[in-house]
Design goal:
The complex is a heterodimer of chains A (152) and B (203).
Chain A lengths: L35 E2 L5 E6 L2 E10 L3 H21 L3 E11 L3 E6 L4 E6 L4 E10 L3 H11 L1 H4 L2
Helix pairs in contact in A: 1-2
Chain B lengths: L1 E6 L6 H13 L9 E7 L6 H6 L4 E6 L8 H15 L3 E5 L6 H11 L4 E9 L3 H5 L3 H8 L4 E5 L6 H12 L6 E4 L8 H9 L5
Parallel strand pairs in B: 1-4, 1-5, 2-3, 2-4, 5-6, 6-7
Classes of the chains: A alpha+beta (152), B alpha/beta (203).
């Protein structure tokens, strides 16, 4: 657990950033570059200042009503596991979007033929920003929570 | 041009406040929506808040994968200049990341756009304040001490005694800002938005 460390603003980067003017600002990434990346794939972990940032994108092959219930449960699981690991939740959030209804129209003569399709796939994009745990712990928590969907 | 920097810790309710502020500025006249541009900065690899804001019909620009108070300060200037060129808005509302230091953002804006009238608003979370104070004290302090206006949000989720304690605690970091108790889940008073729009004029 790194909660206590969060109060001691040790610096881990070259002092080339203007953000250190007049305040305490701890960074674990290289300044002048994008935040430090730990993973690639449906879940990426970066660190910025004291925060551990897990970004994720995946699909849930369910209709919207069911998908939003599942996503709600998964995010609650992430929150619970972060706290059980001694971490502090900054913000865990996701945007769920269904493709909606779609229709294919085809014509071979005068009349058209329509085929309607109901969306059964929802896309999830979100972030979990936490403090006080290791990046690998957050990666593990997110992987565990989303395991049924990130391998699809 | 007015630039409002909306800072505050993660999950404090910044996006909810912006939704109402933009609506207040635009009023019920869709033509006026073009007077406002929302600039979102998100620290994650994917944007979430911008998707919500875009669904309301406002002009939303996004800077993600970093924080404009430090690693992306150059992108902030480029983004603001692009907004000015593309939209020439009266007001830009900039939502900072929840780990940003708004003073750095204001300095970057003033240095690069000297004519801009830049105000800093800090949104705080009354419900989580006591819990976050100890581990996040330095960040919370630095987010608060430069604010022109402080919103104590989520007042509907705490009792009066807790609210008084929280506000007293917040005032130890900045007692000169204008304070407002709000619940962004409900309708925010127009006087709060007037104060936010007036912030920074004497800074």
């Amino acid at each position: 657990m790194k909660t206590e460390q969060a109060q001691h603003h040790s610096h881990h980067q070259a002092d080339t950033c203007g953000c250190h003017d007049g305040h305490h600002h701890e960074h674990h990434h290289e300044h002048g570059e994008a935040p430090h990346h730990h993973e690639q794939g449906p879940i990426t972990i970066t660190t910025h200042d004291m925060s551990i940032v897990g970004s994720y994108a995946f699909s849930i092959e369910k209709k919207y009503d069911e998908a939003q219930l599942l996503l709600d449960q998964m995010l609650k699981q992430v929150a619970k596991e972060v706290e059980n690991s001694g971490g502090i939740i900054g913000h865990i959030k996701a945007f769920l979007k269904a493709d909606g209804e779609s229709c294919m129209i085809s014509i071979t003569e005068e009349e058209s033929n329509k085929r309607y399709l109901k969306a059964e796939c929802c896309k999830v994009e979100g972030v979990a920003i936490v403090f006080g745990i290791e990046p690998e712990q957050l990666k593990s928590i997110l992987t565990n929570a989303f395991k049924a969907y990130i391998s699809q | 041009m007015k630039i409002i920097v909306l800072g505050g810790f993660l999950g404090s309710g910044k996006t909810s406040v912006i939704l109402q502020l933009a609506q207040y500025i635009a009023g019920r006249d869709p033509q006026k929506a073009g007077n406002v541009v929302i600039l979102e900065n998100e620290i994650g690899e994917v944007g979430v808040d911008d998707k919500l804001l875009q669904s309301t019909g406002y002009n939303v620009e996004n800077l993600f994968s970093g924080c404009v108070c430090c690693t992306m300060s150059g992108e902030l200037v480029i983004g603001l200049r692009k907004i000015m060129a593309d939209f020439n808005p009266e007001i830009i509302i900039m939502e900072a990341t929840g780990v940003a230091y708004p003073d750095n953002i204001r300095k970057t804006i003033i240095q690069s756009i000297p004519d801009a009238d830049c105000g800093v608003i800090c949104v705080t979370d009354a419900k989580r304040w006591k819990r976050l104070l100890r581990p996040m004290e330095m960040l919370l302090k630095d987010q608060l001490d430069v604010a022109d206006v402080i919103l104590v949000n989520k007042v509907d989720m705490v009792d009066q005694e807790t609210l008084s304690d929280v506000e007293a605690s917040i005032r130890t970091f900045n007692d000169s800002a204008q304070f407002f108790r709000v619940s962004a889940a409900e309708t925010i008073s127009p006087s709060v938005f007037d104060a936010m729009l007036g912030a920074g004029r004497e800074a």
